[in-house]
Amino acid sequence: MKDRLTKNHTTQPELLPNNPILSVQDLGRRVEDRWIWSHLSFQVFPGERIAVIGASGSGKSLLLRALAGLDPLQAGQIIFQGQQINSHFMPTYRSQIIYLQQRPALWEGTVEENLQQVYRLAVHRHLIYNRELILNYLHLLHKKPDFLQRPVSALSGGEAQIVAFLRALQLSPAILLLDEPTASLDAGTAQSLEALVTTWQHEHPQRAYLWTSHDPNQLERITNRQITLKDQSEVTIEKSKETTIDNR
Ligand SMILES: Nc1ncnc2c1ncn2[C@@H]1O[C@H](COP(=O)(O)OP(=O)(O)OP(=O)(O)O)[C@@H](O)[C@H]1O
């Protein structure tokens, strides 16, 4: 199984363990007149598994969306592999940093059509759909190959989220941003998806992810460092279990 799972034909960026993949410098996000968070600085190194925690409304989703380049920033900058993010670099960046939300939209059609469709997007056109990889992932999830032919309109919420995970993981991003991705799922499906992400990371140990969740047990299982958004005016980056990060 392990050998089969290492056959991923997507490209993987050259990442050195001591160089950050991402440097976040003095970042600030304001919504209308209110700063949700500000002066946020930290780095993400290859292989890191980071929990982003904080109360509801502390800005976890806004942070992941900002890191994904989906929302504008009102202060600071993001450096990806030594290069500052700007509009010119954004397409390359977006192919390497992928955001997965709690209830992602799927396209009409079958599961497999959904998985293939994403390769038509300009940012992923250099990649090739890898059915074997998907079948290996499905095997891990105890799903048969005929799952690929199911229409997405007939999927349960948990099955739809499995498709969303597969669609993101197959693109082999350097950093995966997971925004409460299992919050509405039963415990069994949630743990299957945790196992899937763990397998995905083991395939290329330099891959990193940030995961938001209100479930401390889940974060204990799958992360090894924490960034805590304390409240709507103060941002604190807490000491990690295994690594240290900038602390302002
Ligand atoms: N598009 C928007 N327009 C106005 N306010 C917004 C917008 N998006 C987010 N907010 C506000 O910004 C704050 C942070 O929202 P965010 O969704 O990032 O919080 P969160 O920490 O992820 O919360 P939860 O744990 O409940 O998912 C909230 O007060 C929210 O209402």
UniProtKB/TrEMBL annotation:
<dbReference type="InterPro" id="IPR003439">
    <property type="entry name" value="ABC_transporter-like_ATP-bd"/>
</dbReference>
<dbReference type="GO" id="GO:0005524">
    <property type="term" value="F:ATP binding"/>
</dbReference>
<protein>
    <submittedName>
        <fullName>ATP-binding cassette domain-containing protein</fullName>
    </submittedName>
</protein>
<keyword id="KW-0067">ATP-binding</keyword>
<dbReference type="Pfam" id="PF00005">
    <property type="entry name" value="ABC_tran"/>
</dbReference>
<dbReference type="InterPro" id="IPR003593">
    <property type="entry name" value="AAA+_ATPase"/>
</dbReference>
<feature type="domain" description="ABC transporter">
    <location>
        <begin position="22"/>
        <end position="247"/>
    </location>
</feature>
<keyword id="KW-0547">Nucleotide-binding</keyword>
<dbReference type="InterPro" id="IPR027417">
    <property type="entry name" value="P-loop_NTPase"/>
</dbReference>
